[in-house]
Amino acid sequence: MTLQKIMISSMLFISPVVMADQMTAMGSGCLGCHQMEIKTVGPAIKDIAKKHKSTDIEQLVAIVKKGKSGDELSWGTIPMPPNNVPEENIRKVISWMLTH
Ligand code: HEC
Prior knowledge:
The protein has four helices and no strands. α3 crosses α4 (87-97). The protein has one domain: Orthogonal Bundle (Cytochrome Bc1 Complex, Chain D, domain 2). By secondary structure, the protein is mainly alpha-helical. Heme C (HEC) binds at residues 28-30, 32-34, 41-43, 48, 51, 60, 63-64, 68, 73-76, 78, 80-81, 83, 85, 90, 93-94. The site of heme C (HEC) has 27 residues, from α2, α3 and α4.
């Protein structure tokens, strides 16, 4: 197989999954506060990925579900409200975030 063929077939194979996860992130409201490169209301997805490379994903799911406020904040002073979306979606979005 030529390199180009490998690239095309791997794009076909990977991108629908990545896009589905991005759609989940959008549908779950996460992207309203989390942008890829820059800090907006919440930390940038790239910074989250860097910080949580080796954090247990279940721990992050619990945090995101419950939200963070007051003494729990570790990025600044803006709280993250509880995210009332299915846990499965939260897990999907976080694993997508951590690939960046
Ligand atoms: C209303 C804005 C808002 C929304 C919506 C939001 N977040 Fe956040 N998120 C924040 C803020 C602000 C922080 C930083 C909190 C802190 O200082 O610890 C944060 C932090 C995080 C962190 C890092 C937690 C840590 O302890 O380091 C993750 C992971 C995360 N958000 C994922 C998500 C996911 C997934 C969703 C969608 C289900 C989501 N967020 C929706 C504002 C938001």
